[in-house]
Amino acid sequence: MPALKGKDYGKTKMKYPDFVATPSGLQYKDVKVGNGESPEDGDRVVFDWEGYTIGYYGRIFQAKNGVKGGAFADETDFQRCVLGSHTVIPGLEEGLKGMKVGGIRQLVVTPELGYPEDDPSHTRVGPKPSTFDGQRALNFVLFNKGLIDKTLLFNIKVIRIDKKDGDGNYIRKGSST
Questions:
Q1: 58-93 burial by CB neighbour count: b if 16+ within 10 A, else e?
Q2: pTM for this one?
Q3: How confident is the model over 154-173, as pLDDT tens digits?
């Protein structure tokens, strides 16, 4: 079926009117604006996240910290990435830029800005779902050869932004917990 070549999954790209669209195709909406500085390339960002499959009945593939979240959240419960290191999907990395500590943002990530096909276990490029069920739900959508829309929705909250000191170590700058 020639019409299905490439990443055309039979559905036109949705434009959500209450979201801001970037030139790359990422759409985002700030639910809560944080405080302080925004991260730059080279900064380590500590964040919490949720992930949903938009085209597969809004199925969740990563829930927030669950019972360990809230007042009982431990720093090890959160995801970390160094901006510019390409260790998270491009849509998430772009979405983190411009945020501030305590900020909450929703991201609509197109397949082009999502998980790479050559990393099916999500170990090289994350974030990786923390449960087997979450991994299975995400992979069902990403690797389905049918017409399932592979657009994803992320809710992210910036917990902390760490800047490098002169020796290459990270200095804890601020925290929302």
A1: ebbbbbebeeeeeeeeeeebbbbbbbeeebbbbbbb
A2: 0.84
A3: 999 999 999 887 776 777 76
Judge contact between 39 and 96, C-beta under 8 A: yes
Residue 127: cis peptide before it, omega within 30 degrees of 0? yes
Neighbours of 40 (CB within 10 A): 11
The CATH code of domain 19-164 reads: 3.10.50.40
CB–CB of 34/118 below 8 Å? Answer: no
Burial of 98 (C-beta count, 10 Å sphere; 0-12/13-18/19+): middle
What is the C-alpha end-to-end distance of the chain, expressed in Å? 51
H/E stretch holding 141 reads helix 132-142
The domain ranges of the chain are: 19-164
SS3 at position 161: strand
